[in-house]
Specification:
Rossmann fold, 3-stranded antiparallel beta sheet, globular, 8 strands, alpha/beta, 5 helices, 5-stranded parallel beta sheet, single chain, 185 residues
Length: 185
């Protein structure tokens, strides 16, 4: 079992998190000519809050209300038996037709790519999107699957002995991104 050591480096403070999310929102607007067929789906937990913030930014900037949903990928994980004997399954909330829509999956940290693969599997159970794009606040590298983000807030080179923690005020009481050193027991 690995244990967390104290925060090593603060990568983004609250103001930088806000600016980074705003920039991702602008990039989504610039890349997609029509916003009318977009659905944003955040991966539980922090991806949901990031997705909501991106949707609010797009509403502020363009006046277009983008539908948002939440994906729970727990039952799609390939390491389900390793994470817990009784995994906490939450609800996927996609209360709309995703067929022929452009779905933007939002997550906090892109690491191996396995979480995103699970999210795509979960989406396909709800319909057949026209296309899927990926937006992440942080890309830390170390991919195990051929997955890349379309929108990246910050690329952070890390070692496998480090962890990237995204803290959001909705969950953690403050907005920041820190690199944490992890030691094996």
């Amino acid at each position: 079992m690995a244990k967390k050591i104290a925060d090593k480096t603060k990568i983004l403070d609250s103001k930088q998190v806000h600016k980074t999310i705003r920039r991702i929102s602008h990039e989504i607007i610039e890349r997609n000519k029509s916003l009318s067929d977009i659905v944003i789906a955040g991966i539980r937990t922090r991806g949901v809050y990031l997705a909501d913030r991106i949707a609010k930014d797009i509403l502020d900037i363009e006046g277009v209300d983008i539908p948002c949903g939440a994906l729970d990928i727990t039952l799609y994980r390939d390491d389900l038996t390793l994470i817990s004997e009784q995994p906490q399954v939450k609800e996927t909330e996609l209360n709309l037709d995703i067929n022929d829509k452009l779905i933007i999956i939002v997550d906090d940290v892109l690491f191996t790519g396995r979480t995103i693969r699970c999210a795509m599997d979960a989406l396909i159970d709800f319909g057949r999107p026209r296309a899927i794009q990926l937006a992440v606040l942080v890309d830390r590298g170390h991919r195990e699957l051929p997955i890349r983000a379309d929108y990246v807030g910050k690329n952070i080179p890390t070692s496998t002995k480090e962890s990237v923690e995204v803290r959001l005020k909705e969950v953690d009481g403050k907005d920041e991104v820190v690199v944490v050193e992890v030691l094996d027991d």
